[in-house]
Structures are given as C-alpha cells and as structure tokens.
Amino acid sequence: MELVVAVIAFAGAILAAITTGVLVGRIREESSGWLVAWAITTVAVCLGLGAIAIGTLLGFGPLTFRVFQIGGALLAPLWLAAGLIQLLAESRSARLAGWLLVGGLSFVGVVIMTLDPVQSGFDKTLPIAADKWDIPPEWLLRGVHVLALVILFVALIVALIRMRSGDDYDADNMNATVVLAPIGMAAIGSQLFLVQGIFVAALLAAIPGGVWYAVNRPLAPYDDEEEPAPQQQGPPSGPMPVQPQQPVWQEQSLGRRVAGMPPPPQQQPMASPMSGPMSAPMGGPMGGPPMPTTGPQPAVPPAPRSGLGDLVAEYRAGEQQGGGFDYASRMQPPPPQQQPPQPPLPPDFGAPATGTFMAADAFNPQAPEYAMPVPPPTASTEFQMPNTGVLYPGQVQAAQSMAAAQVPAPTTATGSVRPSPNIYGMLTVFTLMDGAGEAFDQLAEDTVEQVLRNEPDTLLFVCHGVKSAPLQRLVYELYRDQTAFHDHQRQAHMERFATERQPLVLATNVIELTVNAAKVVPLPTTFRI
Q: N or C: more exposed end of the chain, with fewer CB within 10 A?
C-alpha cells in the first residue's frame, strides 16, 4: 500500500510542478491575482506530495511531516480558496481583504508549524496531524480548513447564480469554480476526517489537475484577444464599433474582466467607396442571384453600424489605443454628391404660385410692378409682424429678416473663434426604451422651450436624433460658466425633465466638454400656426 501511495504522490508532485510552469508562463503575459494564488497552491501541493512520496518510501520524520503539513494541509487549500476570491470578487476592497486574510494566516501558520515541537514515533504510513501536533498548530489547521471550506462553498454558489444571468465571462468562471471548489472541499475533508493516506495523496494530486484544466480550458484567453488588430486602410468612414460597457463603479472593480486582461481589439471599418445602407453586399442586379466572377474578389465592406453607440465607451476605446484616432476627420461632412440636372423653373413674377398677390412689407418683399404698395413703416413693423397676420418666431428673426432685405451680406466674417475659457459644455447620450421616442421628443421639446424663456446664461441646448439609431438621443449643452450650469440644474423644468424621462430611458452616458473654437449662428426654426 505504501508503494502505491508513493507512486500517486510522486505523479501528483510532477503534475503540480508542470502546472506551476504553465501558471508562471501565463502570469508573464497576464498578471492576474487568481493566477498568482493558484501558482502558490501548486507549489505547496508539489512540496506536500513530494514529502508524502519520500516519507512512504523511506519513512516519515519531523522534516517530511512538517513539509507535508505546511504545503499540503495549510497552504494548498487556503490559497486555492484565495484564487477563487480573486477570480469572482467584484470590488477591489474584497480582493484586497482576501489577500490580507490569506497572507496573514499563511505567515502565522508557517511560523507556528515551523517552530512548534513535533511528537516522535514515525513510520512509513501517513501520520495523523492530531497525534503529532500540540494544541496551537492543531487548532490553527482546523480553523484554516473550516475557513477554506466556507470560502469554496460560497464561491461555488456565487458562480452558479451569476452564470444564470451573466455573460461569457460568468459562464467561464462558473465552469472553473465547479471543478476547483469540489476538489478543494474533498481534499480538506480527507484531512479532517482521517481517511487513508492513498485518498489524501490522490485528492491532493487532483488539485493541480483541476487548476491545469481551469487555466487552459474555461479561463483560457479568447482567440480574438490574441489576434492583432487589422490594419486600417484610410480614414474611418463611420462610427467605431464599441464593446458593451459596464458602469464606472464596475469597470474599476471587476476581477477577470478588467484586472490583468488585455483589452479586446477594436475592429476598424474598412475603407470603401460606398457607405450607407446600400453598401451591404448584394447578389446580382436588383438583389437577384450572384453574378459569376473570375478575377480576385474585393474585400466586402462591413454592414452599416447601428448608430453612434455608447460614445463614452468609444472615447475610452480610443484612449486605450493611444489616442491616435482622429475624431475631427469623422466630424467632417461627406463630400457633396452631384445632383442630376433639373428642368428650368418658370419665370418668377414676384407673386405666389396661386396667383394671389400678398401685401409687400419687410417680411414679404415683392416685385414692385406686381405687388401691392408697401405700407407705411408704422403699419406692421412696430409689432414685428407681417401684414398677413402670420406670426414669426420672435423679434430676433424679424430683425434678421429686415436686415437681410435691406443690407447686403458681408463677404467675410470678422472676430475671434476662441470663446471664453469659462464656457462649460456637456454631451449626454440617451438610449431609449422601445416605443419611447415620441414621448421623449415631446418632453425634450417642452424642456427646450422653458430653457429658451428662463435661462439667459444657457448658450446652447440642443436635442439631436440619430438617423441610424432611432432609439438614441443626444443632448448638447453649452453654458456661460459652471455657475450657470448649476443654476440650470436647479430649474423646475429640468427637475421635471429628469423625473419624467426615467421610464423612457434605458441607459444614459455623460461627457463633459470644453470649447476650443466655435462659430455659432441662430438656427432656422419652423413656424407654429
């Protein structure tokens, strides 16, 4: 029986050494806490099984007993549980607490078990710890074993719960935990309940086997994480693809998702002379069967993106790539397309197409030979309204229309494009719930009207839609300074906007802005009759 135990222990020690080498190679590429903890586990198992192999062949002594107890009984289960803490913890404080707890227990346990005297009377059978240790190391081992059992059991429950509603990372973590937690609990139980040495050696040898499987199977790097990003040909012609983003508090805390893992490469859209909805690959003419070709096939352009996506994630993705992406080139308008020739328009007689002659004034200048006489200046311009009775949107537009009718437009603009450094800007991206677009647009329109009437220090407050993403809205805001922004937030209509938009919005992302250069003119508006 001792020979069988020695063979199992020796094979397990070799497996633990090989697994340690695999973990060290992985740590050089990806410095994750769970890899470091499990490397310590496999080293401890290698020492413990080596001591068992030597003891069962040549006879145990105080040295081999201490090495087996420190490596196989104390450090191996404790650091196996610590690796699961580092793998599954969602906050840095939890991971730090795991390091401190496990590191402190390991240091105290190694010191006690190294200095405490050991009872004599060894042979070639695996010694029972309770018969050789005094009270301090015996109860220290029992406490460590109970703590490791609790951690392994809780980690197993947490991994199973997260897998039900999680992503691929949660599924991989669950597969690794389902393998390692039962092996660790069985190894601890074999030492608590005084089973035969062959089972203790076999269960300890199963620990590096489980670690090797977890690291090389469910926790192996994804293929797309190892492939280099494709080279971009020419400037991008559309929005960058973005990865789903976690909230900021999760992004700074997630274990395997953030700590130690390289960011997934951003796929750049391929340059193509065509863009837009018609750039998707088609078959033959008018969507028919594909036409046969003999020459080399051109690269198929990617399908149109689904809109601007998460702008915050796109900005961060660009920062991770070194900030070399030219965002200004993406803001350039597309080159103008040549329009087909239009038939000549009929001659302009200075009157509407219906033939009705309208009164001529500053808002509706007509040709003098076909229009009614221009009324005296006090007849309509005093109240900033035309003779037809149609109300125009305010005195500013009226003054601009009069100036356009009387003063020729200047040929060049003067002044500086550098705005005040105190201007405060913000861009907010709203992702709406299905069917909430109309209600959100009405709420935004009412809010903009209140901003126009009551906030003189709000320089710009614009709500945009996204043509290629019907469920997205962008709100662009500029304020005279940060004090004006705080006053804007305290307005009653903004509190109503923040409250009533909640059931309509699925996600919200905010980007703070500064203004480096600007040219702003009043926007044309539609008339309400």
A: C
